[in-house]
Amino acid sequence: MSEQNNRVSRRRFVATTAFGAVAAASGTLAMPRVLRAQGAGLKIGLLHPMTGALSYSGQQGRLGAAMAVEEINAAGGIKGLGKIDPVLGDALSTPEGGLAEVEKMNAAGVACIVGGYSSSICLAATQAASRYDLPYVVDVGVADSIVTRGLKNTFRFGPGFGVIAKTAIDNLTVLNDAAGKPAKTVLIVHEDSLFGSGLAKLLNAQLPPKGFEILETISHPTPTRDFNNVVLKIKAQNPDLVVPASYYNEYVLLARTMMEQHVRPKAIYSVLGGAASSYKFLKEFPDAAKYLMDCNHWFNPKSAKALELKKKIEDKGQFFTYELYMNYTAVGLVADALEHAASADRAKLNAALESSTFAGHIMPYGPTKFVNGQNQGAAPVNTEVLDNDIKVILPTEFANAKPVFPMPA
Q1: How far is CA 327 from each of CA 49, 205, 322, rounded to the nearest angstrom?
Q2: Which region holds residue 262: left if phi is over 0, alpha if psi is between -120 and 50, else beta?
Q3: Most exposed of 6, 163, 192, 392 (fewest Cβ within 10 Å)?
């Protein structure tokens, strides 16, 4: 056995062991034997930030991907191609880590890669994968630059932040107008990577034409351990709306610090708020989560399949987060494309993804249609924490509650 093949084999052993270990440690999944087998299979790369600042989101994404692989393999695998043999990678919460894992996965001979999570990781990983014509399905990363570079191997099933920002502002305007326009001033708090900075730029451009005055835009790094100074600035400015765009840990800390310092604007209206639509945050800090609004990825609350998966996850003692079901859906998309391609050949799989009309998903989307790698049917929803639950308030066809805006005094 060559030194390179030995490295790949050892890495695959570590990867498959880690795949089972994550599930076992979390109590989420009873892994079928095939996911621990050493035999040949249809290799799919699952790339997530399992360690580092984004590890919670990465681990949730891995669980969603694992659930999808388990279900597909339990049903017999991919028709004509066999069962999925996952090749796992830890992006280390950095673009460099993601890029290195793509190189390893390519050497391992994967047919496709799913994941990345953060925009900066996805940007680097998709670029690396494009050198090998290696199909890459983005699980979450929202930066529009991921799909505007003309890469023929990159597919994002969810919406980008251009669509999300426009939807968020349109929905905010509807809510504010319906309430008699109580909100006029805005303060934006965002993390300073590609995701947060790009989103803040869009909000600064699009909010003023809708009649909102932006008092200040405050950036912060990820990770950030103390938001006292940020909240003091918010208190001094006294905005009607605070609009956060941060990852989970920082969002939780910001919301808790605002509550502790008794800073209560008319609304906390999040755009891709890392915790605003999180059952974990709601369970652990219900008072800080109350009435939080968010425009974000979400499942279809009227889908029986979505509710069944939610119950299955929660019965295992886990939280049904967007990272989880976005990855679950992304693996389902790849499986559907592989069946249509009837081949693990990368060129044929890219073509099948490009022409995909995948409909067997749990998202509140229109028909799947990729244009330049972006699913045109993808759209976010608006949620609000009401009655100790997270409800969809817009759009009306998916809503299961009416909004409360502004927050009660």
Answers
A1: 13, 31, 8
A2: left
A3: 6
Answer whether 0.85 is exceeded by the pTM.
Answer: yes
DSSP-derived 3-state class of residue 247: coil
Distance CA 29, CA 269 (A): 34
Which residues pair with residue 220 across a beta bridge? 191
Helix (H) or strand (E) holding 198: helix 194-206
> Rounded to an integer, what distance in angstroms lies between the CA atom of residue 250 and that of residue 57?
13
Q: Which tens digit of pLDDT belongs to each residue from 139-160?
A: 999 999 999 999 999 999 999 9
3-state DSSP call for residue 333? helix
Rounded Cα gap, residues 199 and 84, in angstroms = 36
Helix H or strand E segment including 311:
helix 304-315
d(CA 84, CA 343): 13
For residue 395, give both structure tokens.
């759009």
- Helix crossing, 3-26 with 95-108: angle to 10°? 120
Q: Which pLDDT band, with edges at 50, 70 and 90, does 17 fall under?
A: very low
* Structure confidence by residue, pLDDT tens digits, 55-69: 999 999 999 999 999
Q: Report the distance separating Cα 271 and Cα 285, nearest Å.
A: 20
Give me the residue label for tokens 């499942």.
Answer: 299
310's enclosing H/E stretch is helix 304-315
β-bridge pairing 293-296 and 267-271: parallel
* Integer-rounded Cα radius of gyration of the chain: 21
pLDDT of residue 41: 84
